[in-house]
């Protein structure tokens, strides 16, 4: 018996590991920067570092390598006054990217649950 048969593949492995996550994050930020309502948030942000952190975080969420070393999400977003609508818009872009890349539905659902669970850490405006 080889090692691959002993354990089910993680979501991270099923979607294609690091290259797939990197491609998803590239596409996500291309969309966010093309969205007139969201792009202004990223003015002045070090996008190389942000993408690196985002790849690490998503990999971790998908049971890949645990290497996220960025700030807590609440700490990173606290002064941005992100509205519920803006939050949902980012989530919709991420979901659309995963669909574009043919990520299996159960994995998209898992990501959706994580997005819901971190919403209170990211949303900062009352509307
Ligand atoms: C949907 C859930 C979200 C997740 C999982 C997430 C995740 C992250 C992560 C991991 C970082 C890097 C933190 C660090 O470098 O220490 C970050 C930074 C950032 N996020 Fe988010 N984010 C989310 C939603 C949003 C939304 C809705 C916006 C704006 C509309 C946003 C705007 C930003 C900006 C501008 C930064 C960079 C902050 C800086 O340069 O200091 N994020 N986010």
UniProtKB/TrEMBL annotation:
Gene3D superfamilies: Globins (1.10.490.10)
Domain of life according to the entry: Bacteria
InterPro entries tied to this protein: Globin-like_sf, Globin/Proto, Hemoglobin_trunc, Hemoglobin_trunc_I
Cofactor requirement: heme
Keyword annotations from UniProtKB, A to Z: Heme, Iron, Metal-binding, Oxygen transport, Transport
GO MF terms held by the record: heme binding; metal ion binding; oxygen binding; oxygen carrier activity
The protein, known as: Group 1 truncated hemoglobin
């Amino acid at each position: 018996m080889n090692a691959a048969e002993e354990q089910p593949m993680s979501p991270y492995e099923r979607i294609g590991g690091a290259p797939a996550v990197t491609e998803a994050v590239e596409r996500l930020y291309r969309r966010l920067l093309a969205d007139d309502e969201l792009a202004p948030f990223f003015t002045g942000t070090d996008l190389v570092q942000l993408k690196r952190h985002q790849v690490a975080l998503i990999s971790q969420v998908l049971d890949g390598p645990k290497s996220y070393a960025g700030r807590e999400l609440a700490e990173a977003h606290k002064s941005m006054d992100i509205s519920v609508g803006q939050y949902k818009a980012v989530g919709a872009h991420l979901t659309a990217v995963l669909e574009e890349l043919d990520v299996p539905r159960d994995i998209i659902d898992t990501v959706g649950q994580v997005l819901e669970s971190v919403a209170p850490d990211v949303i900062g405006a009352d509307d």
